[in-house]
Amino acid sequence: MTPIRRAVALSTVSRLSSLSRQRLTVRSQSLSAAISQFHAYSTSRPLRQQAFHSQLENAPNAADLLSSLDAASAAAPSTPQTLTEKIVQRYSVGLAPGKKVKSGDYVTLQPAQCMTHDNSWPVALKMMSIGATQIKNPSQITLDHDVQNKSEANLRKMRQIEEFAGKHGTAFYPAGRGIGHQIMIEEGYAWPGTLAVASDSHSNIYGGIGCLGTPVVRTDAASIWSTGRTWWQIPPIAKITFTGLLPPGVTGKDVIVALCGLFNKDEVLNHAIEFAGSEQTMRSIPIDDRLAISNMSTEFGSIVGSRSIPFSPLQLTELGGIVPR
Predict the structure, then answer these.
(1) Whole-model pTM?
(2) pLDDT tens per residue, range 185-224
(3) Within a domain: residue 101?
(4) Any idea which of 118-122, 169-173, 256-260 has the lowest mean pLDDT?
(5) Can you give the pLDDT at residue 313?
(6) 64-74 pLDDT tens trace
(7) What positions belong to coiled-coil segments (predicted)?
């Protein structure tokens, strides 16, 4: 399967935003430098089990799967890792000596941070149902929740979450402290070059500051709570390169809506998306707009659980004094 690589002119987005019904067109780029950059981020390994949402359905015999992975590794040419793969490499545990992870690999992840919002109590129930009695690493967990629902059932759930957080010593953010994803970024839990997960489909927002963000289901979150780890399959990786400068009056929301119109046939379904561009181009996109682009990459066609990966380059001074946890 040929890796998806697209160059998108930000000036095209400007024309689209001024003509709401105009169809976005992207001209093919012939710049040799851009093409060589694309190839540097591509992987030629065949992608296995394309439907990542049904990994456990029709699974091949384990021995056959392992031998096929070994054969693919031996036959694969040596290619540089993508940014996604490099970050996953850093947070994978139990790898064989010298193993370099690639798209399609199954890995055991030990993420730097795990956030849950109003799913926190159901996750706690999941954790207790598997026999776990304590959180493996309280500093790895951040809890947030629904704050507008004033029903007795929701208020009771909020009390249970707060009591659970107090018992286990996890970071807890009560009503009025902010939305979970914003807390993760503003409080330094999500940080450039790290891996953070959350029980929410828009966890890819962390890609806006160069943090690999990916959603997890409640069972996976419970696994992280109790063991610090979960399993993951590295998804196919698509690269989108922005060219030019973000025009005045155009926002990150305009850019991502235009991209949703471009990728409207599930071309990047369940992909990791790596946004790139020159330093001048990326500096023209403010961090709040980068966050909007990353957050809404979930909406590519029928996509769920996309992985939006770092804008680069990113100067840490742009983070306004935020320090990592």
Answers:
(1) 0.72
(2) 988 999 888 999 988 888 889 988 889 999 888 888 888 9
(3) yes
(4) 118-122
(5) 43
(6) 433 443 454 45
(7) none
pLDDT at position 39 is 30
> Residue 150 has what DSSP assignment?
-
DSSP string, 156-173: HHHHHHHHHHHHHT-EE-
Give the CA-trace dihedral at 139, 155, 119, 201, to 10 degrees: -110
Q: Is residue 211 part of a domain?
A: yes
Q: Is 92 in a helix, a strand, or coil?
A: strand
| Domain at 101, CATH number | 3.30.499
User: How many beta carbons lie within 10 A of that of residue 58, not counting itself?
Assistant: 8
Q: Which residues touch 14 (CB under 8 Å, ≥6 apart)? A: 247, 249, 250, 254
Task: Name 3's Cβ contacts closer than 8 Å, sequence gap at least 6.
Answer: 41, 42, 43, 236, 237, 238, 239
* Residue 122 counted as domain residue: no
Please give the Cα distance from 248 to 258 (Å, whole number): 16
Backbone φ, ψ for residue 122 (5° rounding): -55, -35
Q: How many domains does the chain have?
A: 1
DSSP state of 235: P
- Cβ atoms 240, 273 nearer than 8 A: yes
Q: Identify any residues that bridge with 11 across adjacent strands, giving them in sequence order.
A: none
What contacts 277, CB < 8 A, 6 or more positions away?
241, 242, 243, 311
Question: What is the extent of the structural domain holding 284?
Answer: 1-44+77-109+188-316
Type and span of the H or E element at 238: strand 237-243
Whether the predicted pLDDT of 51 surpasses 70: no
R_g over Cα of the chain: 20
